[in-house]
Amino acid sequence: MFGGGCACGTVRYALGEAPYDPGWCHCRLCQHVSGSGGLVFATVHLDRYRIIAGGEHIGSFASTAFGTRTFCRRCGSPLSIHVQHQPDEIDIPVGTFDDPEVIAPAFHLYVAEAPGWMPMSAFLPRYRALRPNTRGLLDGQTEADT
């Protein structure tokens, strides 16, 4: 069982499976939400993500036309990203895991939007936007515009 939560400890979640498909996202929104040059996320199946404490303190907002993000309303920690083209999955910021060492990023998304000072692991694949094989999008599609 994997778990995590927000910075102040109010919101806690449990993951009923090992997180998968971890990556860096450098889009401007992830920069704003993280206060940094991007956000490292990993994915789990939606039915394996469970809030176990502090659910009444979770806020959400439509961060794009195709996705919603949640956060702790007490401390502001980002908690999840859920996009329409992957309805059965949810992305979790790796920094909120109890042990962020359990999984390391495997790619970079939206590198065209990354600040020039953002260090990038040279050995990881880099994509201008989304990967051409993103689950839920058409083959070769690199932008979610639904």
Provide a concise account of the structure shown.
The chain has 146 residues and is mainly beta.
Fold and architecture overview:
The protein is globular, with a radius of gyration of 15 Å. Helix content is 5%, strand content 36%. The protein has a single domain (2-113), classed as Metal Binding Protein, Guanine Nucleotide Exchange Factor, Chain A (Beta Complex). β7 (67-72) and β8 form a beta hairpin. It is built from one helix and ten strands. The mean pLDDT is 90. The strands form three sheets. Strands 9-4-3-10 form a four-stranded mixed β-sheet. A three-stranded antiparallel β-sheet has the order 1-2-5, with no helix packed on it. By secondary structure, it is mainly beta.
Overview features:
146 residues; mainly beta; Metal Binding Protein, Guanine Nucleotide Exchange Factor, Chain A; 36% strand
